[in-house]
Design brief:
about 0% strand; about 230 residues; 8 helices; mainly alpha
Amino acid sequence: MFFKILLSAVFAALAAGIIVSAIQQVTTTPLILIAETYEDGSASANQTETKLPAVASPNAAASDPESSAISRPVMTTMANIVLAFGFSLALLSVQILLNRSISARTGLFWGIAAFAAFNLAPSLGLPPDLPGSAAADLVSRQIWWTATAILTALGIGLLSHRQTFWAIAAAILLFVLPHLYGAPQPQQYASTVPAEIAAHFAASSLVVMAVFWAMIGSLSGFFFARQGA
């Protein structure tokens, strides 16, 4: 069983990591490169026009001695594969511990639930941000993010097991509790990056992560089911 889980996670991680990395190269990576030019002062937030490149610019990457147009995508892909592998193992392990049937369809639902808990819910208080964006204390943000993810996951789990009035009420309370408390915010909202670029990045990041989790869940379930008993 362990080898079956491991092999399924490896196949799912390779596919999801490579595909999502390719998507990032034409969505979020160009925005990060632009934000870095504002952060280091080579661009001004008062500029009237900023062009969004379709792909990572080789010239922008070559200006940094520690990176290149090739090394950035490679490192991003490797990191995504490692993350996808860990997430796949976690999703499959939880489904087995709960004695749930595993398939591409059920895996997709688990992936969507994980996206809601670990990305969508925390983003309501702490949206994905770019280099140069204002932010509160790192430890405070990490604590709030962790609490939000756990409470949201508990709420989703409760709804999946119980559909009574009290279960639904308790799940809703778990969902809204961290947001009623409030996410830690910076003392002053100041950013070197134009608001349009920051908003574009936040929206794109959430869409990419939704695709990432959906692929991890469905592919890990697919490969697990294909191996048979």
